[in-house]
Amino acid sequence: MLNKILSLTKSLISIHSTRDNKKALNDVLNLALKEVDNFTIERFEKDGYPSALVYREKSRLKRFRVILNAHLDVVSGKEEQFKPYEKGGKLYGRGAIDMKGAAAVLILVFKEVAKKVSYPLALQLVTDEEIGGFCGTKYQIEKGVKADFVLAGEPTDFGINNKAKGIIWAKIKTKGKSAHGAYPWMGKNALWIAKKILDKVEKQYPLPKKEAWQTTFNLAKIETTNQTFNKIPDAAIISFDIRYIPEEFKGKDFETGKKILLKKIKSLVGNLGEFEILLFEPPQFTDEKDSYVLNLKQSIKKVLNTNPKIIVKHGGSDIRHFNQVFCQGVTFGPIGGDLHGDGEWVDIKSLEKYFQILFRFLINLER
Question: Which of 25, 37, 56, 97 is most buried when burial is the number of CB atoms within 10 A of its CB?
Answer without folding.
Answer: 97
